[in-house]
Amino acid sequence: MDGLASTVAALTIILLAIVSLAGTSRRKQSVEAGMAGMQELCELTGIFDPRELQDVFGPPDMDRLWRKVRMVDIDAARRPMGHLISNDAIDGAAIAMAAASFFVHHPLVDLALLIALVAQASGWLAAARLPR
After folding, report:
1. How buried is residue 74: exposed, middle or buried, by Cβ count under 10 Å (0-12/13-18/19+)?
2. Most exposed of 69, 86, 88, 132 (fewest Cβ within 10 Å)?
3. Distances (CA, A) of 60 to 3, 27, 75, 122
4. C-alpha distances in angstroms, 102 versus 17, 38, 74, 82, 97?
C-alpha cells in the first residue's frame, strides 16, 4: 500500500477496534452485574438465534434478562463469530498492528494491516446481523 492508504487503513482499524473494545467492555459489565439481555449474549457468544440462546443458557426471567449467566458460561458457549465480533485479544492485536505500521514499512506489515482491516470490518458486518 502507498503511504496515504496505509495511514488511512491504520487509523480506521484503530478507531473500529477502540469502539469495539468499548462496546465489549460495556456488555461484559452488564453480564457481571446480572443484567445480561439478548443483545449482550448474542454479541458475546456469536449465537444469533434467540431460541438457541435459550437452549444454551435457559429461559430468561420476566424482564427478559439472564441474571445467572456469568462470563465463564459465555466463554464456554462462544462460537467463532463471537470471537470475531467481541474478542479483546483480536481488537488489541489489530490496534498493535495498526500502530506498528506507522513505524515499520515492509510488505508483510502491509499484509498484516490488510488482514486486521478485514477482521475488523468482518466483525462489524457480523454485528450488524445481531437481533435487536
Report:
1. buried
2. 132
3. 51, 17, 19, 29
4. 17, 39, 36, 29, 9
- ∠ at Cα 87 (61, 20), nearest 5°? 85
Which residues make Cβ contacts (< 8 Å) with residue 119, sequence separation at least 6? Answer: 84, 90, 94
The residues, any chain, with a CB within 8 Å of residue 36's CB and separated by 6 or more, are 30, 65, 66, 67, 69
Return per-residue pLDDT of the chain as tens, 132 residues: 678 888 999 999 999 999 999 999 999 999 999 999 999 999 999 999 989 999 999 999 999 999 999 999 999 999 999 998 999 999 999 999 999 999 988 889 999 999 999 999 999 898 888 776
What number of residues does the chain have?
A: 132
Provide the grid cell at 132.
Answer: 435487536
